[in-house]
């Protein structure tokens, strides 16, 4: 078709260059514009269309997520009770089938539709833009996305492909699809696609799906098939709230989180709910479709599918994540404090009078990079300042980087027999420090001056201890009296009364050691909180087998009563409801028209507190598209199918315009369609996939969602994106007894170069999986090998573009 024409009836400005390249464009007014201005405008318009496609593809993927996440109820024998059944919900769609069908269609719909529209628009004659975009996208997806994903993992972390059998199947077809394309165009029937070739090409699409599904089920392996994820779900059915609505988490997870977080007074219930929702969001299973949606929303400043925390809570959450799983709740509570906190390491000390000194230790938790001033004052008990000890009342400084400070208090040895005497030491902050630091719970220490050399008696301070069910741990004080000489020990154990070990509390049977001079210890017994209303329950803790000369005192047994905590239960249930609300906000399957327009008109889906500058920029540029596509029916209607077809129609319209704009832009700047397709169009349509894979690489525990699906999408692009239009066109020309002509030309060379790059890239990914120098994983690993591999993949993509360009412009001879 001629690329130039002249409209003498309307415009007399200049020859109208590239006016015959599009199906819809160009507009007649362009005849009076300079070629340079038109090129710039078409380039900007092309970018803006890519932005629109990303947004409508987000909606399209939300519809697919709604469809593939549909569940059905089944009955399953209760493993705990005979003749009883559990009713649970399981997913209808298999993940592998969903990824290679609807997911691949959603991810590659612009490329597939561009190929279909180009053939239909050209009166069933093949063009270069559609096939070129499919090959160019495949090269970008395999090489550039792999490079980005490898480099995005923090060293030395790694991500391995879990469903490796599926990956092997899709990798083979991802390579074979393009070899088959080359064979069809250049070997079997040169420059002609026969009907049987088109049919076979299209039928390879369901073949890939079937073989990948069988590979996932280990049908090609001799080893025992592992239990499927759905079967694991059946054994642990989801919990429900008071209204019978399923929760996205188990109450045990919430209770453990509250124990780990500690009783911080700085956090409201809403803050704690957000932190727990962030933890759930990070650990929940996500499909490739959700990562694809999140990638598009990153570009456009849309509502995130992850919980975004305000800076203050984000800092607390990051500190929480660093805590070891075995850390105590009190240590975690201290860790998340934002201000330095000072307190005594112990609340009771003992000193023999003839030692004449006692060291009191003050510890700091929280930030340690600042100086903190504090004050110590002694207060008389039965001991008198000036007669039994030297009075202390002064300020001290905890230096930057210092976590403990030892302060010495002097004791007066008067060589007279006296009973044990006590005094107190009080810790406080000067007024000038109250806004820069705080004190903990241990601000008063008891000091006992002991006048004999006996090892002493060991007993519980109280014969009865009351604890709330929500306390986390029952702390039971054990005292050493009438002597503190030498190292002694005593064993302790728990015994059930009404409370049952492992259900109401964790049983204990251990040893308590008192070093020389120590007179107080604490036994910590973890208490189970199940949020169920129940009567008070008791258990006993008893001391036995003392060593080192010590003797069991008058309270060798204490009874611990666990009392029900209605306030805590109410708070925890309220928090559970808030968490579920936060999680539901992330759903793409429960949208309404009102919610769509609200999300379209607000930055970051209305979450202004966590919105960044780039969110505002993306929202500003995409505002028109967001408002336009808010009219698409929400996913809550007709199970998502109505959204699916309407958004697919919008994608088809935009893709038709993209084809025109890309062809005219390439014409204006002197680029051949084959080069425009593998560069600008391929890059534009693959940009959301780039962000999706990068997010999946960072947040997923495996590499499947990052690069494992790339090979599957690449094969589907050929078998569906070319197989379907080829089949339609081949049937059309067959009905006229004419061949369907498809010039191999630049396409066959581009396919060959990509195939060579594909082989090299797959070899490198395989080496990364099995060699220790790369961390034995496809993604991440040690810093230098990681970046070296990433750079090599980029080099392969540049070579692909360079060689394809040199051949297209005749610098490399290619016999076609």
Automatic annotation (TrEMBL):
GO terms for molecular function: calcium:sodium antiporter activity; calmodulin binding; metal ion binding. One of its GO terms (cellular component) is axon. It is a multi-pass membrane protein. Keywords: Antiport, Calcium, Calcium transport, Calmodulin-binding, Cell membrane, Glycoprotein, Ion transport, Membrane, Metal-binding, Repeat, Signal, Sodium, Sodium transport, Transmembrane, Transmembrane helix, Transport. The keyword Chaperone does not apply. It comes from the Eukaryota. The keyword Iron does not apply. This is Calx-beta domain-containing protein. It comes from Rotaria socialis. The lineage of its organism: Eukaryota, Metazoa, Spiralia, Gnathifera, Rotifera.
């Amino acid at each position: 078709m001629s690329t130039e024409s002249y409209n003498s009836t309307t415009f007399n400005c200049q020859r109208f260059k590239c006016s015959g390249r599009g199906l819809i464009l160009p507009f007649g007014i362009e005849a009076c514009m300079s070629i340079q201005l038109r090129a710039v405008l078409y380039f900007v318009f092309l970018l803006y269309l890519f932005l629109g496609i990303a947004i409508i593809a987000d909606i399209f993927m939300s519809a697919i997520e709604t469809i593939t996440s549909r569940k059905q109820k089944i009955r399953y024998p209760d493993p705990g009770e005979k003749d009883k059944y559990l009713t649970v919900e399981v997913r209808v769609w298999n993940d592998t089938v969903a990824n290679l069908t609807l997911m691949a269609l959603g991810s590659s719909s612009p490329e597939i539709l561009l190929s279909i529209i180009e053939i239909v628009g050209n009166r069933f004659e093949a063009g270069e833009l559609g096939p070129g975009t499919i090959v160019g996208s495949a090269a970008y997806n395999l090489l550039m996305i792999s490079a980005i994903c490898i480099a995005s993992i923090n060293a030395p972390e790694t991500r391995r492909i879990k469903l490796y059998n599926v990956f092997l199947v899709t990798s083979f077809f991802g390579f074979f699809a393009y070899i088959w394309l080359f064979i069809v165009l250049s070997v079997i029937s040169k420059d002609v696609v026969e009907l049987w070739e088109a049919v076979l090409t299209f039928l390879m699409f369901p073949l890939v799906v079937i073989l990948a599904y069988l590979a996932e089920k280990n049908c090609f392996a001799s080893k025992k098939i592992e239990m499927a994820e759905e079967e694991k779900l059946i054994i642990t059915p989801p919990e429900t709230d008071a209204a019978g609505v399923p929760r996205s988490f188990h109450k045990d997870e919430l209770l453990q989180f509250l124990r780990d977080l500690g009783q911080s007074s700085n956090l409201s219930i809403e803050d704690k709910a957000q932190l727990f929702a962030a933890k759930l969001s990070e650990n929940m299973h996500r499909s490739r479709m959700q990562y694809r949606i999140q990638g598009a929303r990153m570009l456009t400043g849309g509502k995130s599918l992850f919980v975004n925390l305000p800076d203050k809570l984000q800092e607390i959450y990051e500190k929480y994540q660093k805590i070891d799983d075995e850390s105590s709740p009190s240590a975690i509570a201290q860790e998340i404090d934002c201000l330095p906190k000072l307190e005594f390491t112990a609340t009771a000390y003992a000193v023999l009078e003839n030692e004449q000194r006692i060291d009191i230790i003050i510890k700091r938790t929280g930030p340690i990079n600042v100086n903190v001033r504090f004050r110590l004052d002694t207060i008389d008990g039965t001991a008198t300042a000036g007669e039994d000890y030297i009075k202390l009342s002064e300020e001290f400084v905890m230096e930057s980087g210092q976590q403990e400070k030892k302060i010495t208090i002097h004791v007066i040895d008067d060589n007279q027999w006296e009973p044990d005497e006590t005094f107190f030491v009080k810790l406080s902050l000067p007024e000038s420090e109250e806004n820069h630091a705080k004190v903990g719970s241990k601000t008063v220490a008891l000091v006992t001056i002991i006048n004999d050399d006996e090892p002493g008696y060991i007993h519980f301070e109280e014969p009865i201890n009351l604890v709330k069910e929500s306390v986390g741990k029952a702390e039971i004080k054990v005292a050493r009296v009438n002597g503190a000489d030498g190292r002694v020990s005593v064993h302790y154990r728990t015994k059930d009364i009404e409370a049952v070990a492992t259900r109401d509390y964790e049983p204990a049977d251990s040893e308590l050691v008192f070093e020389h001079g120590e007179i107080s210890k604490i036994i910590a017994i973890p208490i189970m909180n199940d949020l169920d209303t129940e009567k008070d329950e008791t258990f006993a803790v008893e001391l036995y087998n003392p060593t080192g000369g010590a003797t069991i005192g008058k309270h060798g047994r204490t009874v611990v009563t666990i009392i029900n905590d209605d306030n805590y239960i109410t708070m925890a249930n309220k928090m559970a409801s808030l968490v579920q609300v936060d999680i539901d906000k992330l759903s793409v399957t429960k949208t309404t028209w009102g919610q769509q327009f609200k999300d379209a008109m607000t930055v970051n889906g209305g979450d202004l507190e966590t919105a960044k500058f780039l969110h505002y920029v993306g929202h500003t540029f995409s505002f028109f598209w967001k408002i336009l596509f808010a009219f698409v029916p929400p996913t809550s209607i007709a199970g998502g199918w109505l959204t699916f077809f309407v958004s697919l129609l919008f994608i088809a319209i935009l893709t038709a315009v993209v084809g025109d704009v890309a062809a005219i832009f390439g014409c204006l700047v002197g680029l051949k369609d084959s080069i425009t397709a593998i560069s600008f169009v391929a890059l534009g349509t693959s940009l959301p996939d780039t962000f999706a894979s990068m997010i999946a690489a960072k947040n997923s525990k495996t590499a499947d969602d990052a690069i494992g699906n790339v090979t599957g999408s690449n094969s589907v692009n050929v078998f569906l994106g070319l197989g379907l239009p080829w089949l339609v066109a081949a049937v059309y020309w067959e009905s006229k007894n004419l061949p369907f002509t498809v010039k191999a030309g630049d396409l066959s060379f581009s396919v060959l170069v990509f195939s060579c790059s594909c082989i090299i890239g797959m070899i490198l990914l395989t080496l990364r999986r099995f060699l220790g120098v790369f961390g034995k994983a496809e993604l991440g690993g040690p810093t230098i090998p990681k970046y070296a591999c990433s750079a090599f993949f980029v080099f392969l993509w540049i070579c692909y573009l360079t060689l394809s360009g040199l051949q297209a412009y005749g610098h490399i001879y290619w016999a076609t």
